[in-house]
Amino acid sequence: MTDRNQALFERAKTLIPGGVNSPVRAFKAVGGTPRFVQRAQGAHFWDANGQKYIDYIGSWGPMILGHGHPAVLEAVQKAALDGFSFGAPTEREVELAEAIVELVPSIDMVRLVSSGTEAGMSAIRLARGATGRKKIIKFEGCYHGHADALLVKAGSGLATFGNPTSAGVPPEVVQHTIVLEYNNIEQLEAAFKEHGAEVACLMIEPIAGNMNFVRASVPFMTRCRELCTQHGALLAFDEVMTGFRVALGGAQSVYAKLIPGFEPDMTVMGKVIGGGMPLAAFGAKRAVMEQLAPLGAVYQAGTLSGNPVATACGLATLKEIRKPGFFEALSATTQSLVSGLTGAAAAEGVTLCGDSEGGMFGIFLFAELPQNYAKVMTTDGPTFNKLFHGLLDRGVYIAPALYEAGFVSAAHTAQDIADTVAAAREVFKTL
Ligand SMILES: *Cc1c(COP(=O)(O)O)cnc(C)c1O
């Protein structure tokens, strides 16, 4: 049999840089040939060779119901018949905004956009416009999309600002971005002490999914909140990944249970709210959101923003995940996966630990859960790659990079989990 994945990859590489439209898809970190997906249903997809996989990426989070959920499909098909895009407001945008405001109590008003990058970039502009300040704080290992000011890694010291992580980003563009270590209270306090009056916002992934799966500790999150309040900076939660994924109310609802009265000031959303269609959003209290054009002086716009087909998909998805018991069942499935994997590893003498919240999880080739990016990046790469390819060969598709989280959908069955754990146990024997 000819390998159609390989043939497609070769064709793609002549036309598309690296053969892919988003870098991690290229399997560069793990080696081998990316799987070109032909179709998907439920918790599975089939590649160009017709090979079936259990999908633990779910489009990097959006597919919380699994692929091809009948109610979502129907909503999208109906919406498409009524028109793809108008460049004028529609009722579904209002409905989706109402749903978001209802599910996320820290949000009074919301604006819809088309990608998480756009939402994060716009939220930063709004934070700067609303506070009249320049500086932003972010944390190493957190990804907030590829806006210039956010493609930054830590500099050599606190007083110095970050360095661009991408060519094409002049140092001047990131000079107002302060990059700190995740879960490091001391650095956080020092940064606010030195720059507090100039900080427009602190942006954070509350449960970071772009350095595998790392939670902000409760004391750290408490200090983030206190210092932002004390210095008049906005606490911006990037919940593009965690929103409607770790819990119905997002990661902020998880922290609100642990820290009395806890709320962020701004929230950036994406992924699940589009249900697999290009849709994202950012929201905050009314006084902040009213600074946006056309009401206020902060400009922001989008030809396809609030797209009628995407909003139909998002609304249908939210309707399903709001059903009673949805997150309890999803959490239980995800927990059974993580405990199955750690149990199988222990049985084979492989060091492995894991964590999950709702339908998002991480596993690490460590004895203990890491607390920051530097620790995550000490993962034994060759062993991870063996694990990845071993699973892939056995029809289990996890993220092709050790710094990415995993995702379980409501379509994953106990059989899928058992098959995954059995495959993993076979791979663990070879590590
Ligand atoms: C995926 C992601 C983004 C970027 O969203 P895109 O839709 O890919 O632009 C931003 N922040 C976080 C936390 C993400 O996981």
Structure description:
With 431 residues, the protein is of the alpha/beta class. The protein has two domains: 4-68 and 325-430, Aspartate Aminotransferase, domain 1 (Alpha-Beta Complex); 70-321, 3-Layer(aba) Sandwich (Aspartate Aminotransferase, domain 2), CATH 3.40.640. Helices cover 38% and strands 16% of the residues. It has helices at residues 4-15, 70-82, 91-103, 116-131, 185-195, 218-231, 250-258, 286-289, 308-321, 326-347, 373-376, 381-393, 414-430; strands at 37-41, 44-47, 52-55, 109-113, 135-139, 152-153, 163-164, 177-180, 199-204, 207-208, 214-215, 234-239, 266-269, 280-284, 353-357, 360-364, 396-397, 406-407. It has a seven-stranded mixed β-sheet, sandwiched between helices. It has a four-stranded mixed β-sheet with strand order 1-2-3-17. The protein has a three-stranded antiparallel β-sheet with strand order 15-16-18, covered by helices on one side. Helix 2 runs antiparallel to helix 9, helix 3 (91-103) packs parallel to helix 9 (308-321) and helix 12 (381-393) crosses helix 13. The two termini are 29 Å apart. Pyridoxal-5'-phosphate binds next to helix 4.
Strand order of the largest sheet: 4-14-13-12-9-5-8
Q: How many DSSP-defined strands?
A: 18
| Amino-to-carboxy terminus distance | 29 Å
Structural class category: alpha/beta
Fraction in beta strands: 15-25%
Give the full name of the CATH homologous superfamily of the largest domain.
Answer: Type I PLP-dependent aspartate aminotransferase-like (Major domain)
Task: Report the CATH architecture of the largest domain.
Answer: 3-Layer(aba) Sandwich
- Sum up the overall morphology in one term: globular
How many structural units, i.e. domains?
2
Present as ligands are: pyridoxal-5'-phosphate
Q: Please outline the major beta sheet.
A: 7 strands, mixed
Query: Which residue ranges are poorly predicted, with pLDDT under 50 across at least 5 consecutive positions?
Result: none
CATH topology of the largest domain: Aspartate Aminotransferase, domain 2
| Main CATH class of the largest domain | Alpha Beta
On the 0-100 scale, what is the average pLDDT? 96
Number of helices: 13
| Share in helix | 25-40%
Question: What is the rounded Rg?
Answer: 21 Å
